[in-house]
Automatic annotation (TrEMBL):
Alphabetically ordered keywords of this record: Repeat
InterPro entries, per database record: N2O_reductase_NosL (IPR008719), NosD_dom (IPR007742), PbH1 (IPR006626), Pectin_lyas_fold (IPR012334), Pectin_lyase_fold/virulence (IPR011050), SCF-Subunits/Alg-Epimerases (IPR051550)
Species this chain originates from: Natronorubrum sediminis
KW Repeat (keyword) present: yes
Domain (Periplasmic copper-binding protein NosD beta helix) ranges: 416-552
SUPFAM superfamilies: NosL/MerB-like (SSF160387), Pectin lyase-like (SSF51126)
Protein name (record): Parallel beta-helix repeat (Two copies)
Top-rank lineage group of the source organism: Archaea
Lineage: Archaea, Methanobacteriati, Methanobacteriota, Stenosarchaea group, Halobacteria
This protein's record includes keyword Repeat: yes
Length: 645
């Protein structure tokens, strides 16, 4: 976080420090109740910034802001129900402390109504009111982008009137805190992994039939050029292209399959895209493509359906008009299979295309990856991208507003960013080999929700995995031999079954909300297992289980060591790099320090603590595959003196 400004506002014994550069309020809990702060100066939770920015101007979503006893920032919740659900979660109070003061938006006197989406609209901005004295309408028709919401009022009559018009029950604060709320969270992303794989299988099966279409035209026999054969071919047939090099650009404007026989190259003139697809159910198979133009940011004049008022409209138009080996627009059920593309710009580009399949494709970028744009670029599309190779581009696989996409079993090497998700929700990145990126292996940004990153091998990269947003599921990945293995910048996410080994920094925690569940991972042979920015205590254990940390193993207490481990502590973080650690971890002084840190909040801020460090690696086979398994050791079973072995 940026350095604190010198501005200090004293409210009795309650001290508020304004965090100038970031615009956040830093709180030192005192004995008096603070005044509410501007919502923009809180740490937000509940919906993404994108969803907030795309709401109509007169929409005023229900919000809460909470001052905690052990969390130095004010937390702003979109939806009272978001706070109520969070405070019911295990170890929430241990992470944040107890709520000192809670304020909620007050819809009394605002003329509140619901629009067609169920979002509350008002004549003016609601004021803040004390949560404990407000009245709440639950289970009404009111919505936020995250789902059903609770609507607060200071006046009971106003709450009753709202319930009469829009349904629901009027309740007090204690009832709100005890209610159950149905929220899509990281467990939903975890539970959808198998269904996403089935969705990808379905896309492959759906497009496979295009390879069985009857031949209607053979280039060289029935037509002089590929374009002439396309123009003459009936829909739902195959144009066959014999061995050779064809210097032309082509447009496919009807459902056809274009398939090369033996060694076929389609070569453009270095201007624009080489193959353009403008209809659905098209297949391009078994061809090589080169001669692509060099434009990586077009002039925006491409004929696509974009609402110029929506967020990112200019970005969309410019990127959709970049040059590519294959550029597809509104081309649902596109199949690109067994193709090789050399490109100085992009390899495969889709816009407004659903249920596409890219299989066994190879895209090679320019000599300098920073000159290109993307190997495979999806804009407002969804697809399965599988068993393909992308090398030497700025973005290996780039998904922009392309939810429900599955990227699996690919080789992504030598790019700046390996797999890059932007404004993309509910996608699956799985079983990929991602090596040698100059910046980041898998980078998820701009506040997306419920993505799953599962079973990938990411290594030899500046930053291995940097998932952002919320409710992300990160599991069973091998992240190794990088400067930073894992950058934790998410909220309310699940990290489990990962092996983080041989990195300079295993995990760098930058997210400000301590709401992630990090359990069942192995940290081995990292110079530093974990680092953190300023912020609260992060507890990386849950329900009696924790992670394996090389250096934490001491005396066994069941499957776990008998003392907690803090990888950010000045002593603990050196244990795995210090000779004689098996003896040191049993020292009474070290145990006493761990106990003190566990009870004094001031010693726990800006740190990570695992209350149940595992005695042996949890993901032994995955760790063995990294080659760092010989660096791991186990606990001593019953004695406080090291055994001979």
């Amino acid at each position: 976080m940026p350095a604190l400004s010198t501005t200090r506002v004293v409210l009795g014994a309650f001290i508020v420090v304004v965090l100038g550069a970031a615009g956040l309020f830093v709180v030192d809990a005192g004995s008096t109740s603070p005044d509410p702060v501007a919502f923009d100066e809180t740490v937000h939770s509940g919906i993404t910034l994108e969803a907030e920015r795309e709401l109509d101007d007169d929409v005023e979503l229900p919000r809460a802001q909470v001052f905690y006893s052990q969390y130095q920032y004010v937390v702003g919740y979109y939806g009272v129900e978001t706070f109520a659900d969070d405070q019911q979660q295990p170890e929430h109070e241990q992470r944040f402390g107890h709520p000192l003061t809670v304020y909620v938006t007050d819809y009394s006197g605002t003329g509140v109504e619901l629009d067609d989406d169920g979002y509350p609209t008002t004549d003016g901005s609601p004021e803040w009111t004390d949560a404990e004295t407000a009245w709440y309408v639950l289970e009404s028709d009111a919505e936020t982008p995250a789902g059903t919401t609770v609507v607060p009022f200071t006046d009971r009559d106003d709450a009753d009137a709202f319930a009469d018009e829009y349904g629901g029950d009027v309740r007090g604060w204690e009832s709100v805190l005890e209610a159950t709320y149905d929220r899509d969270d990281a467990a939903v992303a975890r539970d959808r992994v198998d269904s996403h794989r089935q969705l990808a299988d379905g896309r492959v099966e759906q497009t496979a039939e295009f390879t069985e279409r009857p031949t209607s035209s053979v280039v060289g026999s029935d037509a002089d050029t590929i374009q002439e054969a396309i123009d003459e071919a009936p829909a739902d047939t195959t144009v066959r292209v014999p061995n050779g090099t064809y210097e032309e650009t082509v447009e496919i404007d009807r459902p056809l399959t274009i398939v090369g026989d033996e060694d076929v190259t389609i070569r453009g003139d270095g201007n624009g895209s080489v193959v353009t697809v403008t209809d659905e159910r098209v297949a391009v198979q078994n061809v090589s493509i080169d001669g692509v133009g060099e434009t990586t940011r077009g002039d925006g004049d491409v004929d696509i359906d974009v609402d110029d008022e929506e967020l990112g409209a200019t970005f969309m138009r410019n990127y959709a008009s970049t040059d590519a080996g294959i550029a597809a627009y509104s081309a649902d059920e596109l199949l690109v299979q067994d193709v090789h593309i050399d490109t100085p710009a992009s390899g495969i580009l889709t816009h407004g295309t659903d249920d596409a399949a890219v299989r066994n494709a190879t895209v090679v970028g320019p000599d300098d990856p920073t000159d290109g744009l993307a190997g495979i670029l999806l804009l407002q599309s969804n697809a399965v991208i599988e068993t393909s190779t992308v090398d030497g581009t700025t973005n290996g696989v780039y998904l922009y507003r392309s939810p429900s996409t599955v990227v699996r079993s690919n080789s992504v090497t030598g790019n700046q960013l390996g797999v890059h998700l932007m404004h993309t929700d509910e996608s699956l990145v799985t079983d990929n080999e991602i090596h040698g990126q100059t910046n980041t292996g898998v980078y998820i940004m701009t506040g997306p929700e419920r993505n799953a990153i599962v079973g990938n091998t990411i290594r030899d990269t500046e930053t291995g995995l940097s998932p952002g947003g919320s409710d992300t599921y990160v599991a069973d990945n091998r992240i190794e031999n990088s400067n930073v293995g894992l950058r934790v910048d998410t909220a309310s996410s699940i990290y489990e079954g990962n092996v983080v080994a041989g990195n300079e920094v295993g995990a760098d925690v930058t997210g400000m909300l301590p709401t992630n569940r990090v359990v069942g991972n192995d940290f081995v042979a990292n110079e530093e297992h974990a680092t953190v920015t300023s912020g609260p205590l992060r507890i990386w254990s849950d329900d009696g289980g924790g992670n394996y940390w090389q250096g934490a193993a001491g005396v066994a207490s069941g499957d776990y060591a008998d003392r907690s481990y803090t990888p950010t502590d000045d002593v603990d973080k050196r244990l795995h790099t210090t000779d004689g650690t098996p003896t040191l971890v049993q020292a009474p002084a070290l145990e006493g320090l761990a106990g003190l840190e566990g009870t004094v909040p001031g010693m726990r801020t800006g740190s990570i603590t695992d209350n149940y460090p595992a005695c042996e690696p949890i993901n032994a086979d995955r760790l063995e595959a990294t080659g760092w398994d010989d660096q791991a050791w186990t606990c001593y079973e019953t004695t406080r003196t090291p055994t001979d072995d």
